Prior knowledge:
This protein is mainly alpha-helical.
Amino acid sequence: MEDQLVLAVATTLATKGAEAFGAGAREAIGSLFRMVRDRFGVGTPESAVLDGAVEHPEEQWRQTALASALAEVMAQDPQFTRRLKDEWHRLAGPSVVAAQGQVDNHFSGTAEKVVQARDIRGDIVF
């Protein structure tokens, strides 16, 4: 579980961190980013890893490096780990499971056109 959490947080920060921090969007991710930024400090090797992952989210090795830095800090600081887990669960929110015959649509990200539907008969034309 801990490894999955670390990878999920690192990936989220790398791929959405610049958007959330730079644009002030997605307050929950911004809050997670600030929490990690505050814990890593300024001018530290960890903060350089975080900055690199946010500036270059397409570079997988940077996400891996961020996950390693995050795991190391979490191993040293149980209080931070607890706060990070709480924030992650708040960000992820409760899971919604649709019962048979119901629809549960989710969309996250950017797109020009999105269709969320259950039963479509015929074509969809934009």
